[in-house]
Amino acid sequence: MLLRSTCGRELRKLALDVPKIMDNWVTKIGYPVVQVAEVDGGIRVRQHRFLDTGPAAPEDDETIWAIPLSILATDSDGKASIDRGVLLHEREQVLQLDTSKPFKLNAGAVGMYRVLYSPGRLAKIAQAVAMSNSIFSLEDKLGLLLDTLELSKAGYSPTSSALTLYNIFRDEHDRQIWQSVADGISDMTSTWFEHSDIVKDLDAFSRELFGPIVNRLGTDYPDDEDIDVCQLRTAAIKQAANAGYSNVVDHLTALFSKAVETGDDGCIHPDLISIAYQTAVRYGGRKEWEAVKAIIAKAQTPQIGNAAMFALGTTHDKELQEETWSYIMTKARDQDLYIYFRGLQSNPTARRFLADKFKADYDDLCKRTVDNFRMQYLVQFALSALASTKDYEETEAFFKDKDTSTFKMALDQALDNIKARAAWVERSSEDVRQWLESRG
């Protein structure tokens, strides 16, 4: 977070109007992105308002923030230091810096702004970050990953930059790093859900990254294991399963079969209950789907019940998807509707099916949620993961003559999500496709 006292001292040194400039952080909507360009003898830094929808128009880009740049750099001996005295308090500044050595703005990722590097510089920073004796902290690594993904999604940089980072970080061992990588790839897979060639290659890339982690850590959970190792294993197993890594799929489906046969879920580690159910239903058939449906009726704990409700929607069988919807409309409790919706939304083969069914049965669903605010969750899960301009236009038209007062915020967010995802797909499909294909 930006510390008022520290920033205020730096502003006073520059004889600037502290209250006026700090007011921009407190009262103005949004935050900046700092663009870094290399010039002779240093770097040129330039600030703009960051928008999820892409570079701001001039009329939306009038705010100037006072930004502490916190430049992490190395000297001729390779010793690292952080210059916390550099403050970007105008639109653009040129700073002296030896760019032949590793450097990074926003050291420790403490500033509330994003940093945009050129793809070439980003790759160099990533290579330095990934070294075993790296001068960069865990916070630097996480900040770099998050900035790169968000800047890619918003159209400031190519999405291939994020994929390049994930590839460079393949030898990392930290659980938080891998969770960030998993989240990023999952975000892409979800957004390009109707582009089978891209999803296929993203899954292959995911298996390549997470398969070795599962092989190294195994699938058992020792009692005395460090919590970070436990969480890393779980994240790797989930990502590998979703990407179709055969060893993990076989393991999880075998655990599910054993649990069903014995009537005891004790053979499945609690962290794997949900992904085991999902994997069994996704790669199985009616037998597994019926087994999960039976578990819903007799679940002894909320964890088991919620996992089964979610998994019911992960089937890729069209007939079973229809039966899932029939079950939702006739048997599901009103308070559980959103869980079933989440399961269908997570399923790329059922996502459009869910949106169509939601619209077809909208009146009945409204009656089931009239006395509460659950409709906002149904709107969110039924619609927000769609990803085309046509989806945006059809969704907007569908609600045009309806009373949306009880879920207006959720609907607005869903429409914003659809628009952003559609723009990402439109802008970056070829970039992502080329990067994936270039790997051979």
TrEMBL record:
Domain ERAP1-like C-terminal: 103-420
Superkingdom of origin organism: Eukaryota
GO biological process: peptide catabolic process; proteolysis
Gene3D superfamilies assigned to the protein according to its UniProt record, in alphabetical order: 1.25.50.20, 2.60.40.1910
A GO term for molecular function: metalloaminopeptidase activity
One Pfam family linked to the record: ERAP1_C
GO cellular component: cytoplasm; extracellular space; membrane
Record-linked InterPro entries: ERAP1-like_C_dom, Peptidase_M1_aminopeptidases
Similarity comment: Belongs to the peptidase M1 family.
Designated name of the protein: ERAP1-like C-terminal domain-containing protein
